[in-house]
C-alpha cells in the first residue's frame, strides 16, 4: 500500500518526493485490444502516470442499467496500467466535458423537464448517488491506499467555467469519501479569478488547465494556493476539430517548449491529450458558446496529440521525450511494433434499403399531438422521424421548426424539399399544399449534445413545435431511430436515392489489419461495421476517412452498412491505409 499526497510544494508517494508526468488516454475512445499498446507507448515516452475521464453516459445508458464491459471495462484498463507500474489519475465526475456527448452526462436526465444540472438540485443528486453507488466500489480496490495504482481522483471538472455552487462540490466530495475513496482529491479549472473561485473548495487541491503561458497561469494558481504543489491537470498540447473547420495542428517544438517551462517551474503535468482516439458511435460532443452557434465535433479525436488517432507516435511524441530526457534518465526508446495497416481497396455496394419503407420495421410509431424531443421518448442518440398530414389547398408558406436540434431533412409527399440546420443563420423552407392535402415528414439528426458552456441542457429532435406559416401543426406519428439494431432491413437492388437510405457491402478479409474507410463521393451519414457504429462522416470535412481498428474486423466476411442521408456519387467505398484530415 502507498500514500500519494503533498508536502509543501512537492507531491509525495510513500513520503518521497515525486513529480507526476501524466498523459490522458481515454479507454472509451480506444478498442480494448489496443489499451496495452497505448500505455506501453506512454511509459516509453518517460511518463509515470495515465489519466482518464469516466463518462457516466457510457456506463449507465439507461437509468439503473449499467455497462462495464468491452470499451466500458474501466477496471480492466486500470489493471493494465497497474501491470505496467503506471500511476493512474481518475476523473469520475458526473460531468467530464471531454468533447464527449453531453459532457458525459446521460441523456435520460433530460426526460425530466424540470431537471437542473451540475448543482444541488435534489433529483439530480439522487441520480448521481445511484451512479456513484455502482461506480465507486468498482474503483475502490484500485486505490493506492489499497495497493493499487490510482493516486488521485477529481471531484468535478472545470466547474468554475459553469457555476459556483460550492454546496454541490462539497456534496460530491463527501459522496466520494463515504464510498471509500480515500486518495487525494482535486479540482481543475482555468487560471482566472472567477474560474478558481467558482471551482475550488477548502481543503481540496486545486489544479489549472491551459495550453500556453505557464508562468502567468501558475502565478494565478499561487494566489489561491501558495503552499501546495503546482500541477497543470490539462496541458492542451493540441486541439479538437468541428465539422467544416480545418484540422487543428500544433508545432511539436512549441509543444515541447511549453512543457519544459513547466518542468523548470517544478510543476507536475498531465498532457491533454497523450492519445485522443475516436468518437465512435454517436458519442461526439458539440460546442455552443453563443446561443444557436452550434458546432458539432467530428468523429476523429486525433487532437494532433502525441499519438495519432490510430496510435502512432507523432513529432510531438519525440519532441516531448527529448525534453523529458534532460530531467530524468529514460534509456533507449523501445516501442511496441506498430499495428500493420492494409488498404483493402474498393468495395462495391451490393444492396440498398430505403429508410421510409422501413420505418415501421425499425421502430414502433408513437402518436403524439406535438413532435416530442428524443428524451421524452426514452431515446438518447441517432435520428428521429416526425410525420403528419396537412390539409389543402394552401399557398406557398414558410415552414418553421421551433426548435430543431440539430439538422432536419424536410419531405412533402415523399419529395425532398430542403434542410433546416441548427446554425447561427436562419434557414427556411417553403412549400405549397395541393387541394388533396400533403404528408409532411421531417427526419432529424441528433449531431451530438453540447458538452461545454451554458447551454448543456440540449434536448434533441424538435423541442417545441412545427408551424406552417403562423399555424402550429398537430397530430404527429413519431419513429425514434436510435440505429441500435439494423437487422430488420431488407435490401433491394440499387436505384436512384430519393430518401435517406441504407447501403450494404461485404468485405472478405484474410487477416484483419488496421485500415481506414475513405468516404469520398458520399455526402453525410454513418457507417456500421459488423454492427459496430464507426461514427459519422460528412463531406464538408475536415475528416475524410473513418478509422477501423483491426479488432473490429473478422477473419472472413465482414458486413458494412452505410446510412446515407442525401446520396452518393458512386456506389462503392474504399479502404485505404492512410488517414485523411484536411488541415
UniProtKB/TrEMBL annotation:
**Which residues carry out catalysis?**
158, 234
BP GO annotations? carbohydrate metabolic process
Name under which the protein is recorded: Beta-galactosidase
Keywords (A to Z) from UniProt = Glycoprotein, Glycosidase, Hydrolase, Signal
> What species was this sequence derived from?
Paenibacillus prosopidis
Signal peptide positions on this chain: none
- The residues covered by the Beta-galactosidase 1-like first all-beta domain are 371-481
- Annotated family: Belongs to the glycosyl hydrolase 35 family.
Amino acid at each position: 500500500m502507498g500514500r500519494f499526497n503533498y508536502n509543501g510544494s512537492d507531491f509525495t508517494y510513500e513520503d518521497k518526493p515525486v513529480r507526476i508526468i501524466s498523459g490522458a488516454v481515454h479507454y472509451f475512445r480506444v478498442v480494448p485490444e489496443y489499451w496495452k499498446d497505448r500505455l506501453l507507448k506512454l511509459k516509453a515516452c518517460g511518463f509515470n502516470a495515465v489519466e482518464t475521464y469516466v463518462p457516466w453516459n457510457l456506463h449507465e445508458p439507461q437509468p439503473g442499467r449499467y455497462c462495464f464491459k468491452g470499451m466500458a471495462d474501466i477496471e480492466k484498463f486500470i489493471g493494465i496500467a497497474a501491470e505496467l507500474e503506471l500511476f493512474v489519475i481518475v476523473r469520475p465526475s458526473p460531468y467530464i466535458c471531454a468533447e464527449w456527448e453531453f459532457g458525459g452526462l446521460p441523456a435520460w436526465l433530460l426526460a425530466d423537464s424540470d431537471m437542473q444540472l451540475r448543482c444541488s438540485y435534489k433529483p439530480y443528486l439522487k441520480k448521481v448517488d445511484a451512479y456513484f453507488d455502482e461506480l465507486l466500489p468498482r474503483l475502490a480496490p484500485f486505490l493506492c491506499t489499497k495497493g493499487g495504482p490510482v493516486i488521485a481522483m477529481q471531484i468535478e471538472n472545470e466547474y468554475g467555467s459553469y457555476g459556483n455552487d460550492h454546496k454541490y462540490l462539497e456534496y460530491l466530495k463527501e459522496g466520494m469519501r463515504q464510498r471509500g475513496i480515500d486518495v487525494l482529491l482535486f479540482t481543475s479549472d482555468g487560471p482566472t479569478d472567477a474560474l478558481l473561485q467558482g471551482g475550488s473548495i477548502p481543503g481540496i487541491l486545486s489544479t489549472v488547465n491551459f495550453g500556453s503561458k505557464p508562468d502567468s497561469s501558475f502565478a494565478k494558481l499561487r494566489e489561491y494556493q501558495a503552499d501546495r504543489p503546482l500541477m497543470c491537470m490539462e496541458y492542451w498540447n493540441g486541439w479538437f476539430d468541428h465539422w467544416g473547420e480545418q484540422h487543428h495542428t500544433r508545432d511539436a517544438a512549441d509543444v515541447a517548449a511549453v512543457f519544459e517551462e513547466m518542468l523548470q517551474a517544478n510543476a507536475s503535468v498531465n498532457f491533454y491529450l497523450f492519445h485522443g482516439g475516436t468518437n465512435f458511435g454517436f458519442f461526439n460532443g458539440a460546442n455552443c458558446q453563443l446561443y444557436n452557434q452550434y458546432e458539432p465535433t467530428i468523429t476523429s479525436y486525433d487532437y494532433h496529440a502525441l499519438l495519432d488517432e490510430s496510435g502512432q507516435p507523432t513529432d510531438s511524441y519525440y519532441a516531448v521525450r527529448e525534453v523529458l530526457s534532460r530531467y530524468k534518465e529514460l534509456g533507449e526508446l523501445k516501442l511496441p511494433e506498430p499495428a500493420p495497416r492494409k488498404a483493402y481497396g474498393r468495395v462495391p455496394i451490393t444492396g440498398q434499403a430505403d429508410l421510409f419503407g422501413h420505418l415501421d420495421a425499425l421502430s414502433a410509431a408513437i402518436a403524439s399531438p406535438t413532435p416530442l424531443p428524443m428524451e421524452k421518448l426514452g431515446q438518447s442518440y441517432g435520428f428521429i422521424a416526425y410525420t403528419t398530414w396537412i390539409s389543402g389547398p394552401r399557398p406557398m408558406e414558410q415552414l418553421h421548426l421551433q426548435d430543431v436540434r440539430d439538422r432536419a431533412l424536410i419531405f412533402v409527399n415523399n419529395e425532398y424539399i430542403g434542410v433546416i440546420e441548427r446554425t447561427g443563420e436562419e434557414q427556411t423552407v417553403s412549400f405549397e399544399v395541393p387541394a388533396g392535402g400533403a404528408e409532411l415528414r421531417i427526419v432529424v439528426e441528433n449531431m451530438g449534445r453540447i458538452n461545454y458552456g451554458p447551454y448543456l441542457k440540449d434536448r434533441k429532435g424538435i423541442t417545441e413545435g412545427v408551424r406552417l406559416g403562423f399555424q402550429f401543426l398537430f397530430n404527429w406519428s413519431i419513429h425514434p431511430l436510435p440505429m441500435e439494431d439494423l437487422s430488420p432491413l431488407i435490401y433491394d437492388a440499387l436505384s436512384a436515392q430519393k430518401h435517406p437510405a441504407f447501403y450494404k457491402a461485404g468485405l472478405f478479409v484474410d487477416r484483419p489489419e488496421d485500415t481506414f474507410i475513405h468516404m469520398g463521393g458520399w455526402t453525410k451519414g454513418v457507417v456500421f461495421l459488423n454492427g459496430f457504429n464507426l461514427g459519422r462522416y460528412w463531406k464538408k470535412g475536415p475528416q475524410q476517412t473513418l478509422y477501423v481498428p483491426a479488432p473490429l474486423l473478422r477473419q472472413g466476411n465482414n458486413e458494412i452498412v452505410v446510412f446515407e442521408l442525401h446520396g452518393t456519387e458512386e456506389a462503392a467505398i474504399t479502404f485505404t491505409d492512410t488517414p485523411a484530415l484536411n488541415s
